[in-house]
Design the sequence.
């Protein structure tokens, strides 16, 4: 009995002692900290090849949405190796990246090339890294113009431009508006860092990485590792994990030449479509 | 009790802060992200201008258009210019693949053809003589009557020949030829110009042509470039404005024209319409005073390095219609040599 009472007394004194409450506080602290402060991640999203189809654009947008909604992802490194793509697909990615940038740090790391739409996507990030011989630029658009509409006996149309949507001159006017949108986006996002005028940007020239740095098209020379460190710095991360967010339909390898352009033009048919796409015209 | 709760809370805070400090050194501070606005993005096409057209329908001149050298254009593209020419009373003739350029331009036959015709005439004469010998005795009475009839028919045919003799052209238009001109053709065109004929050479940087094959004969070179202006243009950088002109019959009443993908023409003092300081050549960097229009050989040869401005709807921009009217006037007006040849009423 006396032994039982002594144990009870011991326990009472232990449960009422300060070290016990310290231990309780620490255990609770660990449990709360693990759920409240998860280990931060930096996500790498790779966009490679021409972004031509809406399905590829949708997959990229899904990945960006996941990165925005996942609380453990504190920063995104956008690995870019793309000659651009369809104007509409490019603009969707650009606008979603701007939304993501409002919540999380976004750093672009350009590989071989980020031309035309590829560069359009890059300017939505907080900071752009290129490798010394990466190529950036080609700020502009092109359109495959419709053939002048001709009436056929077998097909009836309710208006003069039902089949084509308008005259070639009208679509050339729209092309100019598309160019202005692209140039405005670069001017807006690069701000004071940019050393080129609107006219110079509109020449749609390609620049080597070091040249791009000189003209303020990019922020620094560096690899993906530098981009990850910059993303961590912008997000205020001391210790973090790097995770790759794969895009379902990502192309593993691409090359885009004259034959692909011809195929692209044949796909467009009568309906004009605008492209932020760099290609070799020969 | 309060003291013990405070200890628990302190323990929690220490762990949470410790984890926080382990992973984080600060917080992400989002930059002020300005979303793009699209309201101010507009494209205003250049307006069209009034133009004066001296259409008279009184002329009797002829213009020959080259279609014999696989020319890279559709006839509809010259509709505006042809209408202006027709309204001035000019006759338009087309030079087809089967036609002889030398004969059509100068009215001369080739030596071989001339020899063939002489030979045919001699043979025909011999046959007639043989037939006459056989029938001489039998048809003495009828011969006289037939002879009279034949004479009358021959006279009628001669009269018809005089009436139907084709009028030689006063001007020759060559647009985007893809086939080379032979040496004889070049000589014929040279002689045509020397005799006072006018020559209009037109090409377009967007179309393949071998225009320099003939242009270089007259000291003109259509450069392998296009002109562009990033600062001020007609909807697109390759659609340039030209507002600096040498005063002459081609540029009269012109203030500003728009050319739709034009190239530069090199010549010795032949340029008559010059690009401004913001317009550049896609190829030439050393020279600045470039011209897409040239007038050479005592104003007998006009070279224009853009075809699009002549066609609908591009002819309606700025003073383009005036330029087309001026070209039509130039084609309609006789040169000094032609004035000397033509009898005055």
Sequence:
């Amino acid at each position: 009995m006396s032994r039982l009472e002594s144990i009870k007394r011991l326990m009472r004194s232990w449960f009422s002692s300060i070290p016990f409450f310290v231990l309780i506080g620490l255990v609770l602290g660990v449990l709360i900290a693990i759920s409240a402060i998860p280990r931060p991640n930096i996500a790498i999203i790779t966009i490679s090849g021409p972004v031509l189809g809406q399905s590829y654009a949708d997959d990229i947008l899904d990945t960006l949405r996941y990165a925005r909604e996942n609380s453990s992802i504190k920063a995104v490194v956008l690995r870019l190796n793309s000659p651009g793509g369809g104007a509409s697909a490019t603009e969707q990615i650009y606008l979603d990246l701007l939304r993501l940038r409002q919540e999380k740090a976004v750093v672009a790391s350009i590989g071989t090339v980020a031309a035309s739409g590829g560069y359009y996507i890059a300017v939505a990030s907080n900071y752009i890294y290129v490798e010394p011989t990466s190529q950036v630029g080609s700020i502009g658009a092109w359109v495959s113009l419709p053939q002048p509409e001709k009436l056929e006996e077998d097909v009836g149309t309710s208006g003069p431009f039902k089949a084509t949507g308008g005259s070639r001159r009208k679509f050339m006017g729209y092309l100019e508006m598309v160019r202005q949108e692209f140039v405005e986006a670069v001017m807006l996002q690069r701000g004071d860092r940019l050393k080129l005028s609107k006219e110079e940007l509109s020449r749609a020239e390609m620049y080597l990485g070091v040249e791009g740095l000189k003209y303020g098209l990019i922020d620094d020379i560096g690899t993906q590792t530098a981009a990850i460190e910059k993303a961590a710095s912008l997000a205020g991360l001391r210790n973090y994990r790097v995770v790759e967010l794969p895009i379902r339909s990502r192309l593993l390898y691409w090359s885009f030449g004259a034959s692909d352009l011809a195929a692209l033009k044949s796909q467009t048919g009568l309906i004009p479509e605008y492209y932020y796409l760099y290609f070799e015209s020969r | 009790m309060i003291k013990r709760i405070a200890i628990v809370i302190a323990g929690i805070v220490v762990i949470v802060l410790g984890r926080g400090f382990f992973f984080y050194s600060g917080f992400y501070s989002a930059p002020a992200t300005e979303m793009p606005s699209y309201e101010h993005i507009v494209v205003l096409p250049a307006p069209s201008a009034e133009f004066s057209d001296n259409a008279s329908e009184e002329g009797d001149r002829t213009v020959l258009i080259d279609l014999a050298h696989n020319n890279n254009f559709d006839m509809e593209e010259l509709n505006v210019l042809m209408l202006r020419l027709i309204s001035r009373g000019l006759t338009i003739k087309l030079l087809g693949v089967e036609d002889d350029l030398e004969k059509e331009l100068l009215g001369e036959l080739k030596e071989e053809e001339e020899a063939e015709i002489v030979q045919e005439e001699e043979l025909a004469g011999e046959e007639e003589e043989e037939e006459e010998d056989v029938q001489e005795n039998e048809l003495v009475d009828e011969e006289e009557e037939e002879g009279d009839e034949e004479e009358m028919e021959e006279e009628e045919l001669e009269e018809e020949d005089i009436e139907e003799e084709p009028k030689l052209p006063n001007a020759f238009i060559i647009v985007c030829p893809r086939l080379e001109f032979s040496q004889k053709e070049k000589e014929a065109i040279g002689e045509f110009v020397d005799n006072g004929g006018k020559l209009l050479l037109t090409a377009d940087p967007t179309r393949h042509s071998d225009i320099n094959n003939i242009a270089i004969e007259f000291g003109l070179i259509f450069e392998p470039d296009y002109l562009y202006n990033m600062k001020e243009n007609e909807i697109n950088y390759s659609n340039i404005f030209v507002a600096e002109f040498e005063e002459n019959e081609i540029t009269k009443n012109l203030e500003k024209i728009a050319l739709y993908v034009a190239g530069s023409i090199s010549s010795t003092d032949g340029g008559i319409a010059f690009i401004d300081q913001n317009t550049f050549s896609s190829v030439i960097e050393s020279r600045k005073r470039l011209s897409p229009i040239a007038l050479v050989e005592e104003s007998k040869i006009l070279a224009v390095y853009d075809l699009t401005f002549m066609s609908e709807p591009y002819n309606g921009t700025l003073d383009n219609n005036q330029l087309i009217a001026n070209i039509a006037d130039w084609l309609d007006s006789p040169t000094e040599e032609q004035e000397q040849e033509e009898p005055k009423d």
User: Anything to note?
Assistant: Residues 15 and 21 of chain A are 8 Å apart (CA to CA). The mean pLDDT of chain A is 88. The longest strand of chain A covers residues 105-115.
